[in-house]
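Support case: nicotinamide-adenine-dinucleotide complex. Customer-provided input:
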Amino acid sequence: MSHETRMLIDGELLSGTQEFEVLNPATEEVVAMCADGTAADMDRAVAAARRAQDSTDWATDPGLRKRSILQLQKALEAEQEELRAELIAEVGCPVLTTYGPQLDAPLREALTWPAEMVDRFPWSRKLPDNDPFGVGYQSHREVWKEPVGVVGVIVPWNFPIEVTLSKLGPVLAMGNSCVLKPAPDTPLNANRIGRLIAEQTEIPHGIVNIVPSSDHLVGEVLTTSPLVDMVAFTGSTATGRRIMEAASSTLKRVFLELGGKSVNLILDDADFAATVPTAAGICMHAGQGCAMPTRMLVPFSRYEEAVELVKMGFEGVAYGDPTDPANLQGPQISAKQRDRVLGYIDKGIAEGATLVTGGGIPSGFDKGFFVEPTVFADVDNSMTIAREEIFGPVISVIGYEDDDHAVQIANDSEYGLSGAISSTDLERAMGIARRIRTGTLSINGGMWYGADAPFGGYKDSGIGRQCGIEGLEIFTETKTVGWPTGT
Ligand code: NAD
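Agent response - structure generated as follows:
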């Protein structure tokens, strides 16, 4: 398989002055050597985005935008199978996940929906004529939506295509230019997008620039440069905080999609046999998802029964080689992440939680960064494993007394990204859903996801929403104009 290793700056595919290794986390083999962008490359990319934004027709030609986004869509679809294999190699995601959120789901709509919305978005609205200051004549008044300008797009490694397309589609549809910085672990899918943009679309040079780098701090140029108007970031809460601080000196807009510690709340009337074992769904992609419900809340009245069923679910998880379609769980992205997950498991034990199953590196895996599906019981919501995002295949089972107590535990978290509720009484579940402070919620297994569905967090899980009308509006500025009636 051929990988694109070059970055894209001002319409040119460039090898750069240095390169870095991209590792396959399942085999530890080198997938490719990638161009290693420097701060100087990033500066050039930002300057190109600024120039393109200010001097091309991109912001004012909706037809060009729609056409070019659909050209990119077509080009990606033509390479869908190469992209699938590439994601499995650099992300370590099970092939199973590429049929859903890793690839096929976003590829279906993350670009096409914003492209359609170019025609349907409410770009302007009229306000009633009036004479607010009593100057003696009426004015027409209108509100116009315009692009924000140059957007720094910074993405993580866990669902790189999903996050990248869900940002790129709205950024471009709304008429902005951008500089995209992929995560150091997973740059190849982004470079591929760069090549397709350069070779198969009419997107003007400089409107999209893609600068991979082994150095996280190269991304900091996007958060400090006065030429950048906005930073759209998905990643950890710690980095999000740092970005917000850095962006404050130039008063950039910040759009932050951050971490989570979501609940899976099982009400006492739920069908336990059917719902509780499915908690093992958090092992999908080795637990490396921001919205995964890793705090499981079960009533004390049915606690032992629940723990047995969770254990059964986790012990049934197929894991290993991500190219094997039977596997739900692959490796952690890196040795560092695997060690971080193992560190949390040690902390759980040290703080008094009961390790029910898993807890280590599985036997028989001498290559790859694997961790066993792991269940902790007797977890108190104050323990580290209940408060911090582990980003591994680890669940904490927490008991509660009654519905009010469950809601109180659910909301007792710095995060507020997602969650799940199960009950045989939909109205009761809905009532609880209204009390939980998170950006998305699944009730009885319902799926909220979609290019038209806003996604994001309350509290430390972020600021702003990706996708949906909200995810288009966030990439716009608002201008209000008035002119005398009769002119
Ligand atoms: P991370 O915060 O370490 O890195 C994310 C990106 O930020 C990378 O591209 C990285 O190179 C860049 N970066 C790091 N420091 C920077 C700095 N000072 N300035 C500019 N850029 C910088 O996150 P990660 O480990 O790549 O991803 C995992 C995290 O992402 C988890 O916390 C997860 O919950 C979160 N995430 C959130 C969502 C969401 O939509 N809420 C989706 C996916 C992942």
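The CA atoms of residues 26 and 190 lie 20 Å apart.

Case will auto-close in a few days if no follow-up is received.
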